[in-house]
Amino acid sequence: MIDFLITFSLTLLMVLMVLNLGGLLLWVERKGSAVLQDRIGANRAAVFGKLPFNLGIVNTLVADPIKLFTKEDFVPPGADKLLHTLAPAIGLVPLLVTFIVIPFGDVLIIGGREITLQAANLNIGILYVLAMVSLSVYGVVLGGWASNNRWALLGGIRGSAQMISYEIPLGLALIGVVLAFGSLDLQEITRAQGALIGGWIPAWGIVYQPVAFLIFLAAGIAESKRIPFDLPEAESELISGYFTEYSGAKQAMFMLGDFVEAIIVAGLITTLFFGGWQIPFLLRDGFHFPWGGTLALPSLLVTLLQVGAFTLKVLFFCWLQIMIRWTLPRFRYDQLISLGWKILLPLALANVMLTALIILLFE
Amino acid sequence: MAEAAAPLLRAQKDVAEHDPTSEIMELQMGPSHPATHGTIKFNLTLDGEKILNCAVEIGYLHRGFEKMCEQRTWNHCIPYTDRLNYASPLINNVAFALTAEQLLDVEVPERCQYIRVIMSEISRITDHLTCLGMAATEAGAISVGFYLMESRETLYDLVTAVTGARLTVSYARVGGVTHDLPHDFAERVRAAFADMRRILSDCDKLLSKNRIFIDRMSGVGAISTEDAISYSLTGPLLRATGIPYDVRKAQPYSGYDRYEFDIPTGTQGDNYDRFSVRFEEIRQSMRIIEQALNGIPSGPIRIDDPQITLPEKKQVYGNIEGLMNHFKLVIEGVKIPPGEAFLSVEGANGELGFYLVSDGSGRPYRVRVRPPCFFGMAALGEMLRGCLISDIITTFGMVNMIGGECDR
Fold first, then answer.
1. Domain range spanning residue A52?
2. Is the Cβ–Cβ distance between B351 and B370 less than 8 Å?
3. By C-alpha distance, which of B383, B348, B404 is closest to B42?
4. Which of A158, B97, B104, B148 has its CA 20 to 30 A from that of A56?
5. C-alpha distance from residue A244 to each of A75, A251, A256, B162 (Å)
């Protein structure tokens, strides 16, 4: 019973964390882009009258959702009502449950009980991630198809082609990491990254697999359908692409889905390439510096530090994606597909081959 | 064009009964679409994303400019010309005034010529910044678009300081301009240009040397030199194909032969060349303005002729002759001798021409505009054939249709 409660609360915690982080990213996106573009950005709504400065938190975290949830829920004539309603959910739910396999800390020791800070300790974690991310393609395709709108259809077609094409380099990049660490379990992979190469350099995934990291970043942004890969949406070309005919809460779900996907990409990059919750030289009982010093820390503090490190890394990669989104122009459809199939795929294959060869030779 | 595509459509439909992948989709892009700014409609015939035919439908912003002008005195037409190319209203003002002056067979004082050149070139820069900024935004590089808009704003501040308005400037008059430049104008221009050079070099790094952007623009919407001439394209569209034709050099007006500047040209006639030509023209315009500010003489800013220009306010309020002069000019207009004249200037999008006919009554008998982007729109369908949907946005952005000017 208590095991079930622990798993349940961890899962709930993860889902809520992702949802809240998604909302927070909306704020970062609106206010951050304003900073980037020398604008003021969202600053109209305030709760306690006029403040000397307004960070737009009320705007983006309260006013925007209220606006979206109270808008008319419009289903266009001739649309498939069931699929039109179902599509945002099909797009969002698989993404929300993806995060449960990503470990956000080592272990939490409470009352002699060791709790692994990972909602679902699947030994095929990576496959689960890939499966769930693939499922969310259906949201895009069905949304585009069920809307009875040609712009939405074009967006849906673009979305399905893009997401399926980029899943292949994404998966192949992961295979490189799996080969390097010899496990599909994300917690195992993270623990393996606590080792030190030559006693100094943390054995993070990026050190073993720099090429895989770049491929994963590119394919990951393509999966989350954000600039420079936002072709399914492409507001200057396809109006809003696959969610042209969506309004109110359903549209909010699609938008949130993109943010959640960005968080998943950030979480996976952190876990696979940047040591997850690992802090260099921090072991379970404290810091062990390579120059000989040690700094003992209580177990709870170590756990908190690890969770904090993981959160910071995830936030950094979310921020990085938002910066990329506001800096680069977008690709064209044919260029996007040829980048995926002619550059990323061969590169990812070569990376897997090379990794396998090196492992074969040295072990 | 829709008729021309009909047999093709029928044939494709027959095939489509057997093979669903060859089905043709018809799609109406606009008039209410994020990218069709200026209000325009593209009737597209698509094979997947590929454009088989693109019929361009213009006229959504038709206001009857030419007919309206016939109801007003010559100077009353100046505010209407603001609304032609609203991204560079000062050039339209100057072009109209110059044509009317040609009918009158007078020449404005030298200081006025300098002021007109300075203000026209500032307008050319704002127009190009608008065009490039929109192109960047529509290609997805929204931040770069904002940077360019921001630097345009510094120039609008200058325009406001001189004319009192950002867009509806109504600055030129037949025989002169309304106000002189403010006393600190030269310093303000230099400060604004220092700022703008920094932003332009930022945008150079972010956009014109960005691999994604180059791939999006180069080889797209290309048109050959022969086709460009036969469509009578002018301005950046023609210069991108390699022909250094610029009205400022070919038939200098307002003393443009005093200034040293280059005419940037392209080689391919594609969108990237158009982009680069416009980008470089901004720099050349800055050169012209700096030369003009160094050489500007002092003196009157309008012709001293009571038949053409309004008297000083002191005269209007001080004596009856001045008051009557003012009244007659405002109510009846400048009496331009009967005749007709055509004059073209280098607008931001190409050759902007005014054809004016006078019957000696104080009002134009006929006004006709040669809007540069009208011809670009005629060629757009040809440029787009065989391209993808995304290319419509970049090509349309580079043709830079301004609805007010194209539809009049």
1. 2-362
2. yes
3. B383
4. B148
5. 11, 9, 15, 44
What's the CA gap between A181 and A275, in Å, rounded? 12
CATH 3.10.50.40 correct for B69-305+337-407? no
- The domain segmentation of chain B, as residue ranges, is 2-57, 69-305+337-407
Tens-digit pLDDT string for chain B (408 aa): 455 566 666 666 665 566 666 678 888 887 888 888 878 888 888 888 888 888 888 888 888 888 888 888 888 889 998 888 888 889 999 999 999 998 888 888 888 999 999 999 999 999 999 999 888 888 888 888 888 888 888 899 999 999 888 888 888 888 888 888 888 888 999 989 998 888 888 888 888 888 888 888 888 888 888 888 999 899 899 999 988 888 888 888 888 888 888 889 888 888 899 999 998 999 899 989 989 998 888 888 888 888 888 888 888 898 988 898 888 888 888 888 898 999 999 988 889 999 999 988 888 999 999 988 889 888 888 888 888 888 888 898 888 888 888 888
pTM over 0.90: no
Taking any CB pair shorter than 8 Å as contact, residues of chain A touching chain B are 33, 36-39, 150-151, 154, 157, 227-228, 230, 234-239, 326-335
The token pair that represents B374 in the structure block: 């009208």
* Distance separating alpha carbons of residues B78 and B73, to the nearest angstrom: 9
Number of domains in chain A: 1
ipTM of this complex: 0.81
Chain A partners within 8 Å of B139 (Cβ):
236, 329-330
Q: How far apart are CA A67 and CA A59, in angstroms?
A: 10
> How many alpha carbons fall within 13 Å on the CB side of residue B304?
4
